[in-house]
Design brief:
Largest sheet: none
Radius of gyration: 25 Å
Shape: elongated
Structural class: mainly alpha
Length: 128
């Protein structure tokens, strides 16, 4: 009986120490309300791969590549908001198509007409 009481006391002591051992970082971490957007960790890699892919396939210079990178980064938040929204699948599909058309118009302002035609020809098509 004494062993059970001692074991229970030690278990209680260990769990209370763990509860009290929170660091300042854990204690001061802000609480999310649910409407904050956090950029996915791989978005920089995707933007870099997209812009470098266009640089290689279209022969873009550094300035145009940087503009394409920035346009892609600017488009990421709106795409994620559409995908995570509470709309129906049909509404999401329509919103993503409209967003893609807007993205293409921004690229049209950066690329030459010949480069833009090549981009449209090589762009992967969405499955219906």
């Amino acid at each position: 009986m004494k062993k059970v009481i001692v074991f229970s006391f030690m278990l209680l002591a260990l769990t209370s120490f763990k509860a009290l051992a929170q660091t300042d970082e854990q204690a001061t971490r802000p609480v999310k309300t649910g409407d904050e957007w956090q950029m996915p960790k791989d978005v920089l890699l995707r933007a870099k791969a997209f812009s470098e892919g266009l640089q290689k396939s279209l022969g873009l210079d550094e300035a145009a590549t940087k503009k394409v990178f920035n346009v892609y980064m600017g488009n990421t938040k709106s795409v994620d908001e559409i995908r995570m929204g509470h709309a129906s699948e049909k509404e999401k599909k329509e919103a993503l198509a409209a967003n893609q058309a807007e993205f293409d118009q921004k690229l049209k302002g950066i690329l030459s007409p010949a480069q833009f035609d090549i981009y449209l020809k090589n762009k992967p098509r969405a499955k219906n």
